[in-house]
């Protein structure tokens, strides 16, 4: 990563402690607000509101969940202009005077955009319709060609299915596809196997209105005999309606192209619908749009603060970690060099964005590069709600409509990868655990039993630590929205409890209440970060500050915290502090820390970095 390397040489580098849990929604909210999870209100992918049923959670990426002021809202109070591009938690866009907001609805955490006309999908003669797969029928013609159509069904009703006519033929002895966009008088897209189309903008009837969407096709496979074919269609994202002000979308369309918000093709990859090459090409397309959008927005608009986020590295590590993890039971050492190269290519894409940020900031600008967490291996999954069911703490049965929990007989349930909620009387609907002595006995009983759990093959202890909720304010977790027990497993393990609102009803329960499963390489995630402590060496992230007045070539010995980033940027840039900020100034990054002594009521504690 040459751009990052150059930035480090002229800047200040430090390890950085993630939030607890080390997860995308709370992590990026802490970066933006300088507040801890229970202060800014985002405690996970799903956010539990006390008093509601335990089976209901709210979307953790929703900007309306945030209870703390962001750095860009604080800057706006001083009439500063911000440009925000695809930052987790910024959607729906809040009023932000003088500023520009682009996207932010998806492109991380497995989220598919609710704005999509259609999600990415794969059409194939060898597929069965379901999920993102659509079966197509091939019709041979008397002239030797083969015809089919690609039925594109918009997601929101009322809608009209648009069918793209495809002719498979041979030209100069090679198979190829002609995809017709519109009527037969229009020129067709001609693709050979492995080729992508340019971006296509077409109009679809979705939700009862005509919406222009942008997408691409790739001819994944076409047999020599024209009797087997597979075509990939990317996310079909509206070309308007995703920016504030709305006019910015037209400028991006004309100068950058249709938005490529989606970088998470691991669904299609894990299902075997697309190959590794295509998956990496989706990353490349996303990074290319992102870089060009950054440069165009910065060059054509006034701004004081530019904030963006990219998720490619997270996706790549989730997908390919097993390729480099010698401890995975299905690791193939002969392929390790290949997967180090794959990950290197993904890091290089993000390095391009860092290079763009440095160019945009110029010599006099402050550049800050950070992450929200690291990664640890995911070799085995501990299905904690199955364990709770086996031990009589949770009662559930599988029905035709899915798993149903009997809350009148359930005393505890795991909600996401670190929280165990007790079903407390007078606090939770249908609560049965009496507050006081019974509550305390049950907590102690569950924690002690969890410490005894060992993997059925390796014999490894699963639980790393467990805390009472009242002990977790040091991690920024407090109140009735967090677990009564908050725990972390050891690196190498994950927790199989529901972490997303759309799958919450299952709670990770499975038939037979099996306790463990082994991750399947390239068919599911083989690294994780949310169920383990953020203190582990691999699960930490890092931060780089570079710019005027910043010490150069310095590596700090003691990690900072994500909540320290926003107040430090605010003070260096002369913005007001976000109102709920709990972080501290990283004073030892300054060439002259005493330069901030003039800030009213600001006390400096300046441990020097270990640079000599």
Give the SSE map:
Layout: H1 2-9, E1 11-17, H2 24-33, H3 37-40, E2 46-47, E3 58-59, H4 71-77, E4 82-85, E5 100-102, E6 121-124, E7 133-135, E8 139-140, E9 146-152, E10 162-171, E11 174-180, E12 188-191, E13 200-206, E14 209-215, E15 217-222, E16 229-233, E17 237-238, E18 243-244, H5 247-255, H6 266-270, H7 276-300, E19 305-308, H8 312-320, H9 336-361, E20 367-370, E21 376-382, H10 384-390, E22 396-399, E23 402-405, E24 412-415, E25 419-422, H11 437-451, E26 463-468, E27 485-489, E28 492-495, E29 516-518, E30 527-528, E31 541-546, E32 554-555, E33 560-561, H12 565-573
Parallel strand pairs: 1-32, 1-33, 4-5, 4-19, 6-7, 21-28
Antiparallel strand pairs: 1-31, 2-3, 5-18, 6-16, 8-9, 9-10, 10-11, 11-12, 13-14, 14-17, 15-16, 20-31, 21-29, 21-30, 22-23, 24-25, 25-27, 26-27
Helix pairs in contact: 1-9, 7-9, 8-9
